[in-house]
Amino acid sequence: MREANNSSVVVVDFWGNGFGMRVRIALEEKGIKYEYREEDLTNPQRSQLVLDMNPVRKSVPILIHRGQPVCDSAAILEYIDETWKDGFPSLLPRDPYDRAIARFWTDFVDNKVFSTQAMFLRSKGDRAKEESKNELIGELKQLEAVLGDEQYFGGANFGYLDVVLIPFSSMFYGYESHGNFKLEEECPKLSDWVKRCLARDSVRKVLPDSVEMYELHKKFYGIE
Amino acid sequence: MEEVKLFGYWVSPFCRSVEIALKIKGIQYEYIEEDLTNKSPQLLQYNPVYKKIPVLLHNGKPIAESMVILEYIDETWKNNPILPKDPFEKARARFWANFVDQKCFPALWKTIWSTSEQYEQNKAEALERLKVLENELGGKRFFGGDSIGMVDIVANFIGFSFRTIQEALKLDVFTEDNFPKLWEWAENFVNCSPVKKCLPPQDKLIANFPPAYMGKTLVSSFQSRLQLPPPGGC
């Protein structure tokens, strides 16, 4: 697979993939032009492009820069931050300890929150649903505590952890509908943060419609 | 004067990762062995989210999660880097470290805790993962090139403990015949000076992994001490 332009940037992703949304938001924040190639994840067969560019994991998102693939969303975000550095807004903070905190909570989102929300959407029976719903709300509250009274997780500036978490907000309507609760009541500061992020061009451009996201997830998780 | 402390558990490969990185960089640290059945108040204070080891404490500031700690160590102490400088190569290293951590380790771990019915299936999955690693290693001495890097460090379980445990349990997952390059990597890896200093004692390892297909109670109590997912949950 060759790119015509040596410095071109291509993103292979699926419109409803939260991990890919973060890559696209990051590029938008940095003002980097990219070509978007849609991979239909509702089709179990992966395209030749994905099989060529990510033979090990066969997953998206994939960033292709100068013809070379970068895979795994967290690795891609760090790559974007390191490659477009001087003269561009930074995603990660400068200080190693602050960077460690951002990476720690990214791991929390990717490993804890992601699997809890999957369990919640997949749960059968009122009791299992209620338990997993409370676990999800608990984890969102933990993240809200990290945010504190700051504008963003990055402090005054929209940063790495904001990019990592904001795609999940496109499923907040879905979680609320599925669990019959209002996130604004449970996590008011987090809800305000979502509104603040949605005012950004990068986020507005990339995040899909919440109703469409819920419909997609309903099909995927077999929810009536 | 820098104050560095590591809260760990002797058998945990996640703790070994951190220790190897500290040794590579020549960082002086105090090691605190945790009793996982009776965790110290400090551990609970420094890692309130997961209450797990390893936790690195640097000048009073705690960092948890082994991969996060490795990145912190590399960014704080710049000598003997464990990640490449080039962003593309760095991204590759992070990808492979993640693969070892999320895909290889759980697959190998599952084989150790298999019942006789589960073993063949779990072994097949582990062999598949090791094959991918063998291909990635190719003709390189280490995943990091001429010297060990983050991927090698994260793969320490494959390099040492797994081979010891599999021999004690008479398993046949990682063999020299099946994976000649990876086997050679393992031999070179365990002979590296920083690694040699960090390996858990072989006899203690063997003593803690009694013969395969043990009863459920023993498995579950050991699982909870090691804080690792049950065989079905990886």
Map the helices and strands.
The complex is a heterodimer of chains A (224) and B (234).
Chain A: E1 9-13, H1 18-30, E2 35-38, H2 48-53, E3 62-65, E4 68-71, H3 73-83, H4 96-122, H5 126-147, H6 160-165, H7 172-179, H8 183-186, H9 188-198, H10 201-206, H11 210-221
Parallel strand pairs in A: 1-2
Antiparallel strand pairs in A: 1-3, 3-4
Chain B: E1 4-8, H1 13-24, E2 30-33, H2 41-46, E3 55-58, E4 61-64, H3 66-76, H4 87-112, H5 116-137, H6 150-154, H7 156-168, H8 180-190, H9 193-196, H10 202-208, H11 216-226
Parallel strand pairs in B: 1-2
Antiparallel strand pairs in B: 1-3, 3-4
Concise account of the structure shown:
Chain A contains 11 helices and 4 strands; from the N terminus they run βαβαββααααααααα. Chain A is an alpha+beta fold.
Please explain how this structure is put together.
- The complex is a heterodimer of chains A (224) and B (234).
- By secondary structure, chain A is α+β, with helices and mostly antiparallel strands.
- Helices cover 56% and strands 8% of the residues of chain A.
- Chain A has 11 helices and 4 strands; from the N terminus they run βαβαββααααααααα.
- Chain A has a 4-stranded mixed sheet, with helices on one face.
- The termini of chain A are far apart.
- In chain B, helix 1 runs parallel beside helix 3, helix 4 packs parallel to helix 7 and helix 5 (116-137) crosses helix 8 (180-190).
- Chain B starts with a strand and ends in an 8-residue tail after the last helix.
- Residues 212-222 and 224-234 of chain B have low confidence and may be disordered.
- The A-B interface holds A 56-57, 65, 68, 70-72, 74-76, 78-79, 82-83, 96-97, 99-100, 103-104, 107-108, 142 and B 49, 58, 61, 63-65, 67-69, 71-72, 75-76, 87-88, 90-91, 94-95, 98-99, 132, 136.
